[in-house]
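stage 2 :: seqdesign
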């Protein structure tokens, strides 16, 4: 067991090692290309994975190319992605992003992001309306294996309960806080394992504390929240 009185970065590394022991070490592998990841993540906002996937599949079945999505009637896009919810905002966000990518590159590709400094790549993505720090970090980490740490609702909740971030730290602020705290080579595995832990053990309501391997390191359980 690690000493909870050590620096937060040491505590985070300790937690990372425990999570690997429980959920395994995740090796990076791209699942979607960057544009696919961007669109999928926009669709995932404020919904669950099942609805996101249904919306994405409907969109790709109706429009086999991103150029077709970009140039389609907005009403048809909204209808295709309706299972993901918030279609009136997500549809325009997707089409607007595709138009801006085309304008910059002359094609629909985000490969140019790898030639930018990381901070500039994040800024370019978050300048797209409808794209926040989480969406940008997911694209950079999952598609390019760049050191950006995404914070979703599970990561935010579990990190706060563990005391890695303060209870008043917003999800947006948590991105930079956790990036500073963690080693870049741990981002991918730590992110996925915190999500797994949030889904399986550290539930928003009724966390299964009696089954939690992180209990000795949990500020929330010990009544010592920051």
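stage 2 :: out
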């Amino acid at each position: 067991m690690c000493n909870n009185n050590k620096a937060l970065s040491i505590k985070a590394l300790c937690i990372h090692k425990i999570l690997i022991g429980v959920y395994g070490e995740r090796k990076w592998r791209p699942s979607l290309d960057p544009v696919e990841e961007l669109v999928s993540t926009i669709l995932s906002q404020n919904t669950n994975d099942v609805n996101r996937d249904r919306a994405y599949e409907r969109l790709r079945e109706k429009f086999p190319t991103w150029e077709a999505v970009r140039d389609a009637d907005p009403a048809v896009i909204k209808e295709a992605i309706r299972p993901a919810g918030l279609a009136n905002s997500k549809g325009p966000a997707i089409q607007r992003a595709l138009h801006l990518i085309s304008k910059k590159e002359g094609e629909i590709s985000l490969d140019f992001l790898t030639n930018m400094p990381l901070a500039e790549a994040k800024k370019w993505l978050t300048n797209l309306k409808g794209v926040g720090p989480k969406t940008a970090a997911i694209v950079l980490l999952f598609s390019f294996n760049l050191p950006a740490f995404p914070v979703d609702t599970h990561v935010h909740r579990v990190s706060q309960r563990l005391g890695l971030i303060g209870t008043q730290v917003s999800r947006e602020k948590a991105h930079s806080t956790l990036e500073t705290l963690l080693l870049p080579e741990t981002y991918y595995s730590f992110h996925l394992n915190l999500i797994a832990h949030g889904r399986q053990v550290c539930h928003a309501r009724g966390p299964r504390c009696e089954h939690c391997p992180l209990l000795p390191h949990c500020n929330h359980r010990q009544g010592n929240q920051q």
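stage 3 :: structure notes
- Residues 114 and 144 are 7 Å apart (CA to CA).
- The chain has a mean pLDDT of 93.
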